[in-house]
Amino acid sequence: MPHLDIINLSADYAHLKVLSGVSLSVEKGEVVCLVGPSGSGKSTLLRVLMGLTLPTAGAVKVDGREIDYHSKASVRAARDRMAIVFQQYNLFQNMNVLRNITIAPVEIKGRPRREAEEEGRRILARMGLAEKHAAYPDQLSGGQQQRVAIARALALKPEILLLDEVTSALDPELVNEVLDAVRGLAAEGMTMVIVSHEMAFVREVASKVVMMDKGKIVETGAPRELIDRPKTERAREFFGKILRH
């Protein structure tokens, strides 16, 4: 049974169809990377999984249990098992790093503050930020802020982590420190669905690559197979363009 099963999923924005019959299964511990041109539906797929955009058709199952996106209780249960990190860090500027990480576990999940802070410090150490627990967001680089955002998601103890272009807002020299953090999570066996345009990283970390275009899945395969030897004309065109630059 797949850890995450996406079945014939569709979604609209106003009258524009942004996802059309997307089906994808993700096994436990698998790292699935979504690639494709801008506007192809990659980020929308992650938003639908989290209940931030409502699907118009299809189903999403976690360990065989379907999420009812019209039920607050079902969406809340899904968010207990999945967490998302966006392009923008969205940290609370008036709170230090540790407070940013612990506010949701304490205030929403009801965990004891001391327990949440101990766990927060452990996660910061995993992210290479142990010494930054008392710093405020404006004292951190963009790469450090993004790693705090990842730490904040991990503090919710998700089984599945969704990452939406987490390096796209960063200066080039800061990209690798964030990718290193994601590499570490992959090595630990975290199930992840990652939207990324960093093809060298995708080739290295992905168990499976999914190319999307116009709201549909064009082709799916192992990284070297899909990136180096795509079978569809659209995938050959896409990879041919981006790998030349």
Describe this structure in words.
38% of the residues lie in helices and 24% in strands. It has nine helices and ten strands. With 245 residues, it is an alpha/beta fold. The strands form two sheets. A six-stranded mixed sheet has the order 6-7-8-3-9-10, with helices on both faces. Strands 2-1-4-5 form a four-stranded antiparallel sheet, with helices on one face. The protein folds into two domains: 168 residues, P-loop containing nucleotide triphosphate hydrolases (Rossmann fold), CATH 3.40.50.300; 67 residues, no CATH class. A hairpin with a 2-residue loop joins strand 1 and strand 2.
Task: Detail the topology: elements first, then pairings.
Blueprint: E1 4-13, E2 16-26, E3 31-35, H1 42-49, E4 57-62, E5 65-66, H2 72-79, E6 82-85, H3 97-107, H4 113-126, H5 142-154, E7 160-164, H6 172-187, E8 191-195, H7 199-205, E9 208-213, E10 216-221, H8 223-228, H9 233-242
Parallel strand pairs: 3-8, 3-9, 6-7, 7-8
Antiparallel strand pairs: 1-2, 1-4, 4-5, 9-10
Helix content: 25-40%
Main sheet overview: 6 strands, mixed
How many beta strands in the DSSP annotation? 10
* Total discrete domains: 2
Q: Judging by the overall fold, what is the CATH architecture of the largest domain?
A: 3-Layer(aba) Sandwich
Looking at the structure, the CATH topology of the largest domain is: Rossmann fold
Given this structure, which CATH class of the largest domain is correct? Alpha Beta
> Measured on Cα atoms, how large is the radius of gyration?
18 Å
* General shape: globular
Range of strand content: 15-25%
- Mean pLDDT across all amino acids: 93
- Within CATH, the superfamily of the largest domain carries the name P-loop containing nucleotide triphosphate hydrolases
Order of helices and strands: EEEHEEHEHHHEHEHEEHH
Question: Helical region count?
Answer: 9
Q: Which class of secondary structure composition applies to the elements?
A: alpha/beta
What strand line-up does the widest sheet have? 6-7-8-3-9-10
Distance between the termini: 39 Å
